[in-house]
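Example 3.2
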Amino acid sequence: MQVHRAAAIWLEYHRSHSRENTLKSYEAALAAFLAEFTDRQIGEVTTEEILSFLNRVTEGRKPQTRRIRYAHLSAFFNFIRNNLDPEFRNPCDTPAMKRLYRNRTPSRWNTIDKDLIDEVIFKTVKPRNRLMMELMTRGGMRVGEVLKLTPSDVNERKLNLREPKSGRVQETVFIPQKVADRLKDYLKEKSFKPDDRIFPVGYEAVRAIVRKAGNAVGVKLRPHDLRRHAATHASRSGVPVEIVSKVILRHTNLSTTQRYLGKVTDTEAIRWIDNLYS
C-alpha cells in the first residue's frame, strides 16, 4: 500500500472518531511526511529514513515538539499495523527511537503560598494587568484563553470560551464575584465593542508582566504558575478533585489534573494529618 493511501484511511478514521483539534494536529503532521513519502510503499519506509525526516522537520524546535511529531508518526504506523496489515512493522518502534524521543519525567511543581500570590496581585497597580492575573489565578484560565476574551464572552460570573483547547464547542469559566465586579467596571470604563479583545496584548507581554510582578515579591513566576495555583489552592482548601479537574481546570481526565497539583512538603503533610485527627 502506498503512503498516501494509508494516510487517507487514517485521517478518514479520525474525522469520525477524534476531536477537531486532534484531527488538525494529525493533518499538519502528515502534510510534511506525505510531501516526501507520498508514493512510497508503506512497508519500504525504514527507521533510518524516519529518523532523518524527523531531524529535518524538527530542527531548531523544542524537545516537546520533537516528541509530538514522533508520537504522531508512530500512531499512524500503529494504526496501519492494527487495522490494515498485521505483518507491518512500525519503523518508529525501535529501542533507539524510543530512547531518543521518550517523554521526560514530569517535574512536580512546588506550591506557591496563597499569601504570596495575593501579594503579587495586590502590588499590581495597572487594572488591565491585575485582571489578567486574577483570571488566571482565581479562574484557572490559560493565558491564551484570557487573551481571546471579548465583552460578548462575559456573562456576570461566567465567561464563555469559544474554541477551547479541549476541542469542545464551548467551555465556561466561573469567577469570584469580586473579580467579576472589577471586570465589569473595566469593560464599562473602556467602552469596548462586543467583539473587541479585552486584553489586546501578546503572550510575551503577559509573560513579562507576570515575571515582573513575581520579581517584585522575590519569586520566579510564569503565567501558567497562576493557573496551577488556582488548582492547588482549591485542592488544599478541600474542594473535591473532581471539581478542581472538571470545573476549574476543565481537564478531560483526572490524571492530567494530578500533574498540576503542587508538591506536598513534609511540613504541610504533618499539618494536614494533625488537622484530620485533632
